[in-house]
Design a protein that fits this description.
This protein is α/β, with parallel strands linked by helices. The protein contains 15 helices and 16 strands. The two termini are 32 Å apart.
């Protein structure tokens, strides 16, 4: 059974609890997906990832096409076997690289020619190639090929990118073989609400299995981002999952859940972990600071991750300062667990019927204590 089932909707806002049924298991929503761009979440084994409470992960089609290749992965039994991850996997289409590798890409109406960032080899991606590649990888959820636009962007250029996204979505839909893979459309249009409305309207006509809000966290600022999310989420079918791509901080996730978003991915937990920044209920904790030299406390006393159960802040600071790889690994595990605990708290608040009040309190608290706010869909 594949599809989406809504369990309950909050009485004060569009936030909801649901279940996403995939070929590799059910996913309770709202859900956060760690990013495993090249087939692995950096520095984390699949067993460690599962221990954080992770159910579903994301991988990147563009990077896996470069190395080792979709055909290689298919011949080895598909992406699940390749990653040694038994649960659901979502692959993005490579569309984000149209933005992130803009200096290495030439965009045309039909597709994109990349110069590989590895060796300069020419690589061509279009809607048909991206869809077939994701089919060969064998992910449970695959994304339509799209064109995000940078911020700021000239109105004419932004509209062109949005129109290409619609055209490419139609080609993806035509190429897609239903089977066991769910296909999501991606709504683009920058922070222009008129273009977002138009793109959403055209994609809804195509009746995708789910819908993503793409092209955000590219420099538009938090206020613009949240306004765009609230506007766009309200345009998408209530009976389909809504996925906010590449966002974000804990407070961004809470705000987006209030707007009715169900799915999230972001590199912040692992990227910050590799850079000695831990997520905590009281804001960011920077482990390189001298104040932690003799600090015998864990990162958080109530956290049940293996890092907090076994290591002190002093030990973590030492690992980072001497270049011991255990430091980034442990902090990445803690941050991933922090995010999964956050999703559990969101779900519990929704189930108890107090989410809207709880969310408002959390957002006020986040503004008071501060939090890491650099985002992005890279690794």
């Amino acid at each position: 059974m594949q599809g989406f089932e809504i369990i309950s909707v909050d009485s004060h806002c569009p936030a909801r609890v649901g279940v996403l049924h995939t070929a590799h298991g059910d996913v309770n929503t709202p859900v956060f997906m760690p990013v495993g761009t090249r087939g692995a979440v950096k520095g984390i084994t699949p067993a460690q990832l599962a221990e954080t409470g992770t159910v579903m992960v994301l991988a990147n089609t563009y990077h896996l096409l470069l190395r080792p290749g979709a055909g290689v992965i298919q011949s080895l039994g598909g992406l699940h076997r390749f990653m040694s991850w038994p649960g659901p996997i979502l692959t993005d289409s490579g569309g984000y690289q149209v933005f992130s590798l803009a200096t290495l890409a030439r965009v045309g109406d039909d597709g994109v020619e990349f110069s590989s960032h590895i060796d300069g080899e020419k690589i061509y991606l279009d809607a048909e190639i991206a869809t077939r590649a994701q089919r060969r990888l064998g992910a449970d959820i695959i994304m339509c090929f799209d064109e995000p636009a940078a911020f700021p962007c000239e109105p004419a250029r932004l509209e062109t990118a949005m129109e290409r996204t619609i055209r490419w979505a139609k080609a993806c839909k035509k190429t897609h073989r239903k089977g066991q893979q769910l296909l999501f459309g991606v709504v683009q249009g920058g922070v222009d609400l008129r273009l977002r409305s138009r793109c959403a309207r055209e994609l809804v006509k195509l009746d995708f299995d789910g819908y993503a809000i793409g092209g955000l966290s590219v420099g538009e600022g938090r206020e613009n981002m949240l306004e765009t999310v609230e506007h766009t989420a309200g345009l998408l079918p209530a009976d389909k999952p809504r996925y906010l791509m590449g966002v974000g901080t804990p407070s961004d996730i809470i705000a987006a859940v209030r707007a009715g978003v169900d799915m999230f991915d972001c590199v912040l937990p692992t990227r910050n972990g590799r850079n000695a920044v831990a997520f905590t209920e009281n804001g960011p904790l920077r482990l390189r600071n001298a104040s932690h030299i003799k600090d015998a406390r864990p990162i958080e006393t109530d956290c049940d991750c293996c890092c907090c159960r076994n290591f002190t802040r002093a030990a973590l600071r030492h690992f980072f300062n001497v270049g011991e790889m255990l430091g980034p690994i442990l902090l990445s595990i803690h941050n991933l667990r922090f995010y999964q605990r956050l999703m559990n708290r969101i779900t519990q608040a929704l189930e108890k019927g107090c989410f809207d009040r709880w969310a408002k309190e959390q957002l006020v608290r986040a503004n008071l204590c501060g939090c890491p706010n650099k985002q992005g869909a890279g690794t």
